[in-house]
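Action item from last week, closing it out:
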Amino acid sequence: MAEKSEEARARAETKFKQQGQRSREAEEARADSAAKARAVDEKTARLKAQRLARDAADAAAQEQQPAEPKGRPAKPSGGHAAKGQRKRQPPLIGNPDEVKGG
């Protein structure tokens, strides 16, 4: 009977050690996750500050530049319409009865 109680004690100690190991690993994982989250937050704050500084500098530069003269835009070279501004073709109609007013 003493052997059974020693075996039970050994199993209990093993189980206790495994639980302790798992709890330490879980704590390390939580700490690692928190550190990563802090790093992301710091990077986000740094990038936001850079973006705001850039936008402020752009706004200041925009105020210092003279306004561009308003007028007719220059024609594209060669007298051709720029790509995307070509004259659109009318839709093809297969049946003259489908024409409005026809």
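Closing note: The two ends are 109 Å apart (CA to CA).
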